[in-house]
């Protein structure tokens, strides 16, 4: 009997029904799903901090059709909005529904990254996939109502389609490419609605693309079918979607919370707390904000001079503290605090905690290797004369990620889970950088 092939247009390949290479991956994903399911069902998690706020705001929106003004001032409403929809669909407000959704979204993101491009050495690709599956930044948040998972799902899906766009471009035809461009813009718009990070990622990605297109005398985009103007169209539609979603929930035309990043800068320049969350900051600000009923315009006029004052007083100290700040932001083992301190294992046997700590240490080591490997890879791509489509994506994505890291380390609030998507992105690209060292003249598909 002849093998039947199933065509996946956006994957750009045929998957044979009798293929043996796909079967191990299916078993691997099944094992990961089972392991994570056991983790979120056997461990008891205490929803606190932002995680509890998400839950409370979801219930408030479910019953009242609105969210609190304090929450909307600081954070994007997408995550509690989506939580409320899940609760309505299942007619239950059990947090385990969201924990299970976290698991499904994370596993889907891992599958998409595995299918996004090929490498000549399959074991290197699996090294990246396994690293993603034990990524501390997400594993340690698996049992919490974390916005990171909703953001990750849309962030990865948007980038997956972005890779296909860079690979195929106009060869899809007018209608398919239009649909693909609109899909990319809408998906990143939803991601921005969940956590206001996509704007900066896409902006810096576009700057990288413009550099390759216009300002690099050595680089030629030999295989990329897409055009820079199409990317500009994606960015414009992305902004429209973001603003529309935000206006629908908050009633205000904006693409991010009313504090417009001022709060993150204000906390980021708290030299005493080394840019980390400080209870004194929020306590003092609440005393100011509550009499004004959390009015965004008024509070911005109050917060702006306070932030400028801190910048002037502490900018030099921020530079001195930058190594500590970078370590706190980029080393994912710090995220494991949420798992070990805020969850209770199913029994007192410490072997499970030791096993998880070993996995977390292994994941942390892999992430640190990815920063080093990808940093060298970025320089190699910058000097390379011909880039194919996947290399264009890798260059622009790493350029965006590293630029954001630099800005975050020096200026913004330091919380390790804030860099979770950057950790995931670096592990996603890790197989490409590793293979560039092993086989310098490889051809990516």
UniProtKB/TrEMBL annotation:
The keyword Magnesium does not apply. The chain crosses the membrane at residues 21-46, 149-166, 172-191, 198-216, 228-246, 351-372, 392-412, 418-438. Keywords: Membrane, Transmembrane, Transmembrane helix. The keyword Transmembrane applies. Signal peptide: none annotated. This is Dolichyl-phosphate-mannose-protein mannosyltransferase. It comes from Arcicella aquatica. The lineage of its organism: Bacteria, Pseudomonadati, Bacteroidota, Cytophagia, Cytophagales.
């Amino acid at each position: 009997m002849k093998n039947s092939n199933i065509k996946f247009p956006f994957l750009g390949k045929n998957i044979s029904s009798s293929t043996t290479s796909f079967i191990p991956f299916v078993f691997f994903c099944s094992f990961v799903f089972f392991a994570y399911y056991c983790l979120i069902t056997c461990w008891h998690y205490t929803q606190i901090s932002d995680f509890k706020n998400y839950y409370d705001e979801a219930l408030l929106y479910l019953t009242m059709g609105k969210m609190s003004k304090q929450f909307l001032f600081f954070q994007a409403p997408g995550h509690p909005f989506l939580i409320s929809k899940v609760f309505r669909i299942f007619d239950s407000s059990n947090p385990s529904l969201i924990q299970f959704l976290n698991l499904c979204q994370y596993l889907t993101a891992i599958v998409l990254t595995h299918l996004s491009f090929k490498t000549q050495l399959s074991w290197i690709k699996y090294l990246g996939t396994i690293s993603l599956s034990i990524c501390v930044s997400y594993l340690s948040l698996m049992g919490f109502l974390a916005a990171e998972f909703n953001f990750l799902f849309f962030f990865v899906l948007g980038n997956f389609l972005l890779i296909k766009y860079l690979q195929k471009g106009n060869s899809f035809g007018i209608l398919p490419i239009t649909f693909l461009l609109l899909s990319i813009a809408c998906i990143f718009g939803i991601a921005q609605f969940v956590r206001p990070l996509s704007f900066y990622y896409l902006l810096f990605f576009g700057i990288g693309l413009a550099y390759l297109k216009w300002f690099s005398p050595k680089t030629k985009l030999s295989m990329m079918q897409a055009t820079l103007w199409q990317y500009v169209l994606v960015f414009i539609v992305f902004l429209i979607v973001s603003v529309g979603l935000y206006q629908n929930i908050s009633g205000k035309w904006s693409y991010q919370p009313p504090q417009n990043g001022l709060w993150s800068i204000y906390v980021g320049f708290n030299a005493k707390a080394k840019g980390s969350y400080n209870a004194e900051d929020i306590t003092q600000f609440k005393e100011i904000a509550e009499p004004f009923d959390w009015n965004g315009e008024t509070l911005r006029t109050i917060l702006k001079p306070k932030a400028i004052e801190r910048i002037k007083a502490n900018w030099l100290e921020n530079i001195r503290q930058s190594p500590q700040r970078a370590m706190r932001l980029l080393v994912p083992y710090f995220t494991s605090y949420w798992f070990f301190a805020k969850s209770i294992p199913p029994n007192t046997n410490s072997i499970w905690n030791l096993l998880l700590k070993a996995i977390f240490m292994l994941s942390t080591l892999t992430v640190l290797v990815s920063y080093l490997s990808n940093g060298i890879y970025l320089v190699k791509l910058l000097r390379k004369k011909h880039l194919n489509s996947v290399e264009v994506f890798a260059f622009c994505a790493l350029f965006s990620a590293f630029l954001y890291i630099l800005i975050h380390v020096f200026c913004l609030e330091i919380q390790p889970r804030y860099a979770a998507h950057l950790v995931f992105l670096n592990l996603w690209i890790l197989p490409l950088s590793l293979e560039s060292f092993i086989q310098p003249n490889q051809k990516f598909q």
